[in-house]
Amino acid sequence: MGIRGINYDVGTQTGPFLSRPVFLIEEVRRDLGVIRDELHCDAVRISGTERSRLIDAAAIALNLGLEVWLAPQSHDADAEKTLAHLRDCAAAAQDLGRERVVFLAGGELSIFMKGILKGDTLFERLRPAQMLKLRLMGTHNRPLNAFLHQAANEVRAVFDGRVSYASAPVERVDWSPFDVVCVDTYRGKRNRTDYGERFRRHLQHGKPVYATEVGCCAYRGAEDKGGMGWAIADPEHDRLTGTFVRDEELQAREVIDLLDILDAEGAAGAFVFTFAAPALPHRDDPARDLDLASYGVVRCYDDGHWEPKRLFHALAARNAG
Length: 321
Prior knowledge:
Blueprint: E1 3-9, E2 13-14, E3 17-18, H1 25-37, E4 43-48, H2 51-63, E5 67-72, H3 79-94, E6 101-107, H4 109-112, H5 122-125, H6 128-136, H7 141-156, E7 162-167, E8 181-184, H8 195-200, E9 209-214, H9 222-225, E10 233-234, E11 239-240, H10 248-264, E12 269-272, E13 298-300, E14 306-308, H11 310-320
Parallel strand pairs: 1-4, 1-12, 4-5, 5-6, 6-7, 7-8, 8-9, 9-12
Antiparallel strand pairs: 2-3, 10-11, 13-14
């Protein structure tokens, strides 16, 4: 078993939506302690938009003995602003200590960064025609790799630890500027039968390969939606887009199975996505139970507290074994 990791989101801004509206140091310290002591993780991928939140959370995690994979997010920013944000966060990360910090110079930028695909917003870039173009034509790969070469150079100018990039499966990344290979890898209807084989292809680069995101939402049918399981939420109207049935056992079975496959294929480690999604609270009203669109291993509530899902316990048992 390689790195036993999980994602911890300190607040990612996507348009008007902020995934963690309230950031309290004492809650972060409690959560990261749970990640170490109850989930038995030895690494945490800290993601989010605001530099100060990222660095504060990373410092707490390091103090707890966790390895930190720092993942700044700047959704819908153009290349220039994205690069500036990465450089700024990398310079701050240098003071944390290079030995136990891995810096991720962006993630799935073909989709999340403005300029490679048409569309000013994530949702415009996620239109079916754009996604088809991404899969079939591959025209995104050249500008993506040009940006990643520049990003790696600028990050390394201010940060002397390990550097990588969290890639989407449809991105053919030139890994030469990076220390390790990272891929956000979900399973859905399209790759259900060859999930392991697709991951195995990344081993050809001759570098350690990590799954920087692996997860599933907790409703029936989510196992076929993979990385798009969140799309059943309509946060603007504080409700779901239809009727869905909660199934936490399905979420637990799916994620544990994926982790077993990744282990068998030689992954150097995996980060479950994600610990919590505070902006997607669980409610008794099925139409407003936004937690169904969450990949979290805990259910969050409107009053700020959380409770473990079935996946929490399954993951804890697996990591401790």
